Prior knowledge:
By secondary structure, this protein is of the alpha+beta class. It has a single domain (2-111, 123-132), classed as Alpha-Beta Plaits, CATH 3.30.70.100. It has helices spanning 15-32, 59-67, 69-72, 76-79, 112-120, 127-132, and strands at residues 2-10, 36-43, 49-56, 80-88. The chain has a four-stranded antiparallel beta sheet. β2 (36-43) and β3 (49-56) form a beta hairpin. The chain is globular, with a radius of gyration of 15 Å. The two termini are 14 Å apart. The model has no long low-confidence stretch (mean pLDDT 91).
Amino acid sequence: MTTLLAHIRIKPGKEEKWEAIMRDMVAQTFATEPGVRRYEYWKGQEENSYYCLLSFTDKWAFYHHQMSDHHEGHDFGDVLAGIKLEYIDPVEGADGGLSHTDDPPLPADATPAQRTAQERFPLSIPAWWKERA
């Protein structure tokens, strides 16, 4: 499984456009991606701040999502002021049904899209997570 928390900043005045993009992204993701487990957007307390909780059956399902036509088809540059993707791991027994985030190696027969996604969104498992599993 792969789970992330996206910390998102939106350009002032772009909130309505951003939220329309997110509604479309969520609808298309759940309609076309069997590997998605959680995909939720939240407004933060700071003005123009948002969060997204994303969880996929594995790293490959996340990479598929990132490289999908519906993800690549939006003009994020027009609305995003900044984004930080943070890989996260559930706390055992308080996990809401999610499994641990894993980082399997790129297979020898990986597609070009998987290779590009691996370069853009490398997953790194902190050593201290393994101590807490």
